[in-house]
Amino acid sequence: MSVYLPFVLLAALLVAAALLLVLPPLFGAGLQRRRRAADVSTDAGQAASALTVLREQLAELEAERAAGTIDAETYARSRDDLEKRALEEGEAAAATVEARPAPRLAIALALAVPVLATAIYLALGEPAGLDPQRVAGQGGFSREQVAQMVGGLEARLQQEPDNVEGWMMLARSYVVLEDFAKAAAAYERLVALVPDNPDILADWADTVAAQHGSVSGPAEAIVSRALAADPNHVKALLLSGTAAFERKDYAAASAQWERILVRIPPQEEAARALRAGINDARAKGGLPPLAEAPAPAAPAAAAGAAEGGSLTLAGRLEIAPALRERAGADDTVFVFVRGGGGGPPLAALRFKAGELPREFSFADAPRMGDGPVPAQLTLTARVSKSGDVGARPGDLEGRVDRVAPDAGGVALVIDTVRE
């Protein structure tokens, strides 16, 4: 029996619970990451696949910020790096028709397997999406290239032993390479730097469980530490319930998972799958099944009318006359479109300052997220003197708020200097 089976379900349900913390587009990201190799057509090419991976990393970064795993400075630095990489990959994939996942359908297909026939952590059957060769390949990198990058990160951490973000990246990279012993050691070092962080502790426990093939072992003590730091931590509760299930303490397993179920909207597929798993545990423990969830209320006629999937925003970009001399012809110009409430970019464009003034359009720009497009958007432009996505003092900027996704003829003027 594969040691990964418990963790596929854990990841899927954890992402469902993350709906309580982050935007709905994040729903199903954990499961998609593990199943992407089986769902995405290989005809999209390496560049488009790499862009897909970067989207997921951006979603994970948003989730980590919402959960408090990383501070604002680390979030901003990491997001800037992902945006820059997404721009580079997006330009290579611009001519490719993007294959968009259907998160709810993916979760329904993955979680609606007969949970009642086996233990909840076996419910998903063959976890082909966990094959690290596929995970590496979907980002356009071979295992050898990933290993080489890990070697570079190890060397960097020798010079910067207190780099929290670096240790986190190293631990996750080792998981991709299936080197769980080194991944666990990296997490142990990370916990020494950031003690009592429930997210890091839960990830460490997950890795130790993969290393030993069971949660009800060394990993369970780490799970207890995570729950001591946050008694309602979703992943820790999932792991704790799995450990109890492995010990055949079905009542305890059901109790832990029920604490998660109450936090997931009952109409979600993941909630129904979790309910089935709980009822399986309750049946094995001689307990009655849970009461049926109430039927969801009928949606309003206008529900969802304000949001859609089309982004055709277009207009003209120029630098204000007073600032033209401050922009070199080879300076990089970034144009981002975000939801009106902020958050990560939905799409981005890149030009040279020497091309301005010029027309722009997001109609063919690769999307950096899979969710619906908000009804109101914020459009920003930045002339980067350094060439990096990250904003720095001296950069020239412009902004337009409350723009419709299908607006045309938008005048975006770069008219301020960043202090």
UniProtKB/TrEMBL annotation:
Residues 140-269 form the Cytochrome c-type biogenesis protein H TPR domain. Gene3D superfamilies: Tetratricopeptide repeat domain. The keyword Plastid does not apply. Keywords: Cytochrome c-type biogenesis, Membrane, Repeat, TPR repeat, Transmembrane, Transmembrane helix. It comes from the Bacteria. This is Conserved hypothetical cytochrome c-type biogenesis protein CycH. It comes from Azoarcus sp. (strain BH72). The chain crosses the membrane at residues 105-124. TPR repeats lie at residues 164-197.
